[in-house]
Amino acid sequence: MTKIVIIGGVAGGASAAARARRLSEDAQIIMFERGPFISFANCGLPYHIGGDIPERSKLLLQTPESFKSRFDVDVRVMSEVIAINRTDKTVTVRNGLSGDEYDEQYDYLILSPGAAPIIPEIPGLSNPLTHSLRNIPDMDNIIYAIEMNQAAHATVVGGGFIGLEMMEALHQRGIKTTLLELADQVMTPTDPEMAGFVHQEILEQGVDLRLGTALTAVEYNGREPVASVDAGEDDSGQHLLGHLQLTLSTGETMQTDLLIMAIGVRPETSLASDAGLTLGPRGGIQVDTQMRTSDPAIFAVGDAIETLDFVTGDPVLVPLAGPANRQGRMVADVIFGKDEHYQRTQGTAICKVFDLAIASTGMNEKRLKQAHIPYEKVYVHTASHAGYYPGAEAVSLKLMYAPDSGKILGAQAVGKDGIDKRIDILAVAQRAGMTIEQLQHVELCYAPPYGSAKDVINQAAFVACNIRSGDIRPVHYHELGDLSEHQILLDVRNPGELDAQGAILGAINIPVDSLRERMDELPKDKEILVYCQVGLRGNVACRQLNHRGYTTKNLVGGYRTYRIAQQ
Amino acid sequence: MTKIVIIGGVAGGASAAARARRLSEDAQIIMFERGPFISFANCGLPYHIGGDIPERSKLLLQTPESFKSRFDVDVRVMSEVIAINRTDKTVTVRNGLSGDEYDEQYDYLILSPGAAPIIPEIPGLSNPLTHSLRNIPDMDNIIYAIEMNQAAHATVVGGGFIGLEMMEALHQRGIKTTLLELADQVMTPTDPEMAGFVHQEILEQGVDLRLGTALTAVEYNGREPVASVDAGEDDSGQHLLGHLQLTLSTGETMQTDLLIMAIGVRPETSLASDAGLTLGPRGGIQVDTQMRTSDPAIFAVGDAIETLDFVTGDPVLVPLAGPANRQGRMVADVIFGKDEHYQRTQGTAICKVFDLAIASTGMNEKRLKQAHIPYEKVYVHTASHAGYYPGAEAVSLKLMYAPDSGKILGAQAVGKDGIDKRIDILAVAQRAGMTIEQLQHVELCYAPPYGSAKDVINQAAFVACNIRSGDIRPVHYHELGDLSEHQILLDVRNPGELDAQGAILGAINIPVDSLRERMDELPKDKEILVYCQVGLRGNVACRQLNHRGYTTKNLVGGYRTYRIAQQ
């Protein structure tokens, strides 16, 4: 009888347990969870804080009892595994309530310990008004702190998924919120110019966004306890009353009532490394494509491990729920003899930021540059569905591909509608090894409420193929900074658009529809850098000019990309 | 100088003209359009009738003037090409206003005549209250008829895209509506059990849906003209006052104030066939993969042509806007020397039916059967995004794949949220040649507002792979009709679900969570056909039983699929 011991009862661990039972009725399966809950909706925590999910109970997807009756899994909560004893194939478990310790034998051990919030070494961080968010007790503590301290201002440090979601949750509760981010952008899986749309949205919503700003010190100022028997306050709550004085890297100070630390997560590897399991170069547990650690009886899944990047094959840390769930399921397959292999990670991800969604898959431009991988990129901005049907919103899409093979390297999108769909399509296309040429031909659902006869996906492929075939020479927004004397800028939009949207300093304005008559106003001995609002009319203008002997480049993604990248 | 003549100024024709100009500034491009409008939003017509698009002008995307100034295309509306004279490479054009005729020479001719509504030979159909919907004048006529006749009841014949959209539009205007459909289902690109969800929605909205019912005769009863000078009625309007008496194939008669004929479309091939161009077996214009007809100087695109089915390679008629647009663009590429080829047609399509969307790609089961193509199918029903986040709706998905290769043959989905996304993903996966094994690994956007850690796509692939690997033996809803004495039905849902949802007659009920204790109530010498609500718990139950020596099959898609298929 196979005995499987699982450490960690959330995404990867719970998936492994359920799948293992489906594959074997005889196996003994024990799942240890350090905290009080298993299989809770960790991605839902900010939405309960913000009020979108009013019922806390909805976040508790399974209980030890339901897991027992459905899957005959022996779930032991409040049970921390404190050591792995590889030679005798046991783990040492400490009961978090009684403090008792005992050993449990395993044939196979599955590590699904997750990743813990990184808490930087900032003076004064340890105080009752500073929290991070990983699990249900963390969530409860944050809500308790908000309510007991009647927080009027909150500060979130870190503009990643959790930081952005917490920013929105707090703002939604009517709490004035500051978001501090050390980098020059939030949502680092995307590139800065795409994150620019998010910056704009955050500012428009009234959040105090501070990029390029670090938190350097925290001072907790507790107030005198004020008993409020009517409100049901007890002693434990009263110490929360107070505020924090924050010092920032800019030298500024600010006062806040609640501090959320969300600068990132770090794989939980102490158990694994104490047991002598090999860690990878990025600090995660190293596994093979079957999720096997350096000990063949021990597997590891989820946020604690390193997987291989889909494009480069390099080890990466990708703390996302989807991969964790599939890895957990796959480990059970492997233990029971199926020849399954994990197929690398694209890191497809999405984040809701107020009315916007921002999503990405594959490599971003920053990483392509770092890895010295040749790439070309296109930007398109087009409506999420037929523009004449109500509710259409702009989809801003960035697609990166290999100039030699035409294969998709990565994609990012941002907008208010249809963002998940476009990145999902490109994630599947990338995984399938599609080229931009093949992407032109994809047949997507079209009816006015859902799409366009030429979807943004087709359009991005058309633009990319125009560049790859040499029909259009591209210029990018970051190349407009220092024009040579042999270059001029031509804005082919209508004058009304220039007034409404702004324009690039020094550009000549000839609307595309007048270009044929006014072409001789342009010099033939200079390179003409053409732009319109999103790139379509620029393309039309470049073609006209090329056919008449002018040298042109088209600003990819047009003024819309240029402008957002300047912010 | 190349001279290109285009017949038809909507999707395919307009795309060809615009692309041709981008590829050549020197070409002479003439576009003939029989009607008064070019490049109008034909897919938007029902939504103006229904009121979703209040401004008629939004449907007019381009004008002859805008096409002239942007693309230097000589657009001639109200100009019907009445003959193609292949030997001298001219077309004969009749001016619809003056009646004058003239010839115009071409180097290349592009046919984009579209498809016309099929008007069956039913006695009495020719009357002022009977309309079909193809273009702006048709739309105007329908609105005029509704308003002048103060239509209180309307009848739509045909449950395809236009029929369904017109049904909704009329219903939305407060007009009591009957939908007649000869087949046993609407939306024939999908299979009947998937269309069942649409039938349910149509009935719930209060539309009088009559499947398996044909219109056999129409009698127009005009009333006495009632002058209403205040309402601005003129003579032309007054003859509309009246009603129609419809006779149905069931022998019933019914009275209606407006009749919309939407039983399908037929490729407009008379010009082509009169000119001796080869037609294909389905009655469309035959073209090669570069859209070239049997005359190398003549190309054809859009609803008038036959393309090759993605799976079978057989000629098919696919009157959809997306293919028409891409074909139009491609013809210009081919004329100007690019080696582009049309990559077959999957027929990806979607229709909004009140709050539902129903969509499909690739082959459906009916066609797979007809073509004797081996297939297996799975059904999954799961939430459009994390169930604990507000707004999640059931996605009902059907996936068909080749049992030998595992390749995707087709897919259908229906539900209130995320339907377009799922079919788009599967359309791309099918086009890329992905197998169900590869589909397990796709990484899709996940955050609670947008998806699930195990998306419906992954789940469908998991179920399919469980079947393909032999871990689960499937049984389908249509196989439950005549059980042998060696089979029994086991319902593993909770008793409360049976009360609320109903159950299959004769099934034993043992909830999955009690199955381990009560397993010995089941006979080992019979095949146990297990079902739950959607198939997940059935899978768990089958595994338990199999491991204990029982023979089982799991009802794919569970009771939800079974029940909708019975309707």
From TrEMBL, chains A, B:
Any one GO molecular-function label of the UniProt entry: oxidoreductase activity
Residue span(s) of domain Rhodanese: 483-567
Origin: domain of life: Bacteria
Keyword set, alphabetical order: FAD, Flavoprotein, Oxidoreductase, Redox-active center
The keyword Flavoprotein belongs to this UniProt entry's keyword annotation: yes
Gene3D superfamilies noted in UniProt: FAD/NAD(P)-binding domain, Rhodanese-like domain
Cofactor: FAD
SMART domains per the UniProt record, alphabetical: RHOD
Classification via InterPro entries: FAD-bd_OxRdtase, FAD/NAD-bd_sf, FAD/NAD-binding_dom, FAD/NAD-linked_Rdtase_dimer_sf, Pyr_nucl-diS_OxRdtase_dimer, Rhodanese-like_dom, Rhodanese-like_dom_sf
Family: Belongs to the class-III pyridine nucleotide-disulfide oxidoreductase family.
Full protein name: CoA-disulfide reductase
Source lineage: Bacteria, Pseudomonadati, Pseudomonadota, Gammaproteobacteria, Vibrionales
